[in-house]
Specification:
Number of strands: 6
Largest sheet: 4 strands, parallel
Pfam family, one: UDG
Distance between the termini: 35 Å
Family: Belongs to the uracil-DNA glycosylase (UDG) superfamily. UNG family.
GO molecular function: uracil DNA N-glycosylase activity
Strand order of the largest sheet: 3-2-5-6
Catalytic activity: Hydrolyzes single-stranded DNA or mismatched double-stranded DNA and polynucleotides, releasing free uracil
Helix content: 25-40%
Number of domains: 1
CATH class: Alpha Beta
CATH architecture: 3-Layer(aba) Sandwich
Radius of gyration: 19 Å
Shape: globular
EC number: 3.2.2.27
Order of helices and strands: HHHHEEHHEEHEHEH
CATH superfamily: Uracil-DNA glycosylase-like domain
Structural class: alpha/beta
Length: 301
């Protein structure tokens, strides 16, 4: 079973017409109702008190979450990880899995209040040394996967100045507010999809719910103090039918939801290449949050 971390800090990590299926409402739409919503930074949380509240027989199971999950996420998911389904999931994690324990929650190094864009993946790469907790990303020194090569190709088409790097590490995007979330956070070695239906989907659905409520809460509110600490909407990039299902319930007035085919070589030419998502995301973010709301997709140094 996965219990404690190895070293959490080392895990840190011309506009085209949108295809049909890209849904949004302009960022100038009516202000989101905030009555009764507690501001993100005002939600109290004490890690020591939380750890003390965990039942003694579960403390070892939740040690990884307590020590490696970003605090802005843990304070909103702390009760979720105590639920029976999650405890059962942790009890079942007793074989060699990817990514390594210290990297399972690397996605949470992007603070909740700073999230601008969410990219939905399926499950981690199942080969050795590939997965490191960010969907589509691989550590430097690992061959760039085919899907990521197509992602680079699309960025190049939208931003001709982009020079695709020889590596596939997307940590710079995470640092710039891009949440790269796999629906299943672990996988058995050499067995793709092996942890589907084990509980991760329920947990990451809750992660999406948290983003729905508080994603981008600490981004510029344009001088509107009433919106400080309240999520005003983010961009969801959902590539492939699997990802599209994960975001189908979200409010298309609050968020920009962009869907297309998956960047896999088997489907990239069926709607991913040419989808214009990266520029569309930045145009929407700039209108809502100002120039600082944009993501520098080209910076992957």
């Amino acid at each position: 079973m996965l219990s404690g971390p190895q070293d959490c800090k080392s895990a840190k990590p011309a506009a085209k017409k949108l295809k049909l299926g890209a849904s949004s409402s302009g960022p100038d739409s009516a202000k989101i109702a905030v009555a009764g919503v507690q501001r993100l930074n005002a939600i109290p949380f004490s890690l020591s008190q939380y750890i003390e509240s965990i039942p003694q027989d579960h403390k070892h199971l939740l040690k990884l979450e307590s020590e490696c999950m970003g605090k802005s996420w843990l304070k909103l998911l702390k009760e979720e990880i105590k639920k029976p389904y999650f405890i059962s999931l942790k009890n079942a994690q007793n074989l060699k899995v990817y990514p390594s324990p210290k990297n399972i929650y690397a996605w949470s190094n992007t603070p909740l209040g700073k999230v601008k864009v969410v990219i939905i993946g399926q499950d981690p790469y199942h080969g050795p040394n590939q997965a490191h907790g960010l969907c589509f990303s691989v550590p430097k020194g690992v061959t760039v996967p085919p899907s990521l090569k197509n992602i680079y190709a699309e960025i190049k088409a939208e931003y001709p100045e982009f020079e695709p790097p020889k590596h596939g590490n997307l940590t710079a995007w995470a640092d710039n507010g891009v949440l790269m979330l796999n629906t299943c956070l672990t996988v058995k070695a050499n067995k793709a999809g092996s942890h589907s239906g084990k509980g991760w989907e329920e947990f990451t659905d809750r992660v999406v719910d948290v983003v729905d409520k508080y994603g981008g809460a600490n981004l510029s509110s344009g001088g509107d103090s009433d919106m400080n600490g309240i999520g005003r909407g983010v961009v969801f990039l959902a590539w492939g039918s699997w990802a599209a299902k994960r975001v189908a319930k979200l409010n298309k007035t609050k968020h920009l939801i962009l869907t297309s085919a998956h960047p896999s070589p088997f489907s990239a030419h069926k709607g991913f290449l040419g989808n214009g998502h990266f520029k569309a995301a930045n145009n929407w973010l700039e209108k809502k949050y100002g120039p600082q709301g944009r993501v520098n997709w080209c910076n992957l140094d």
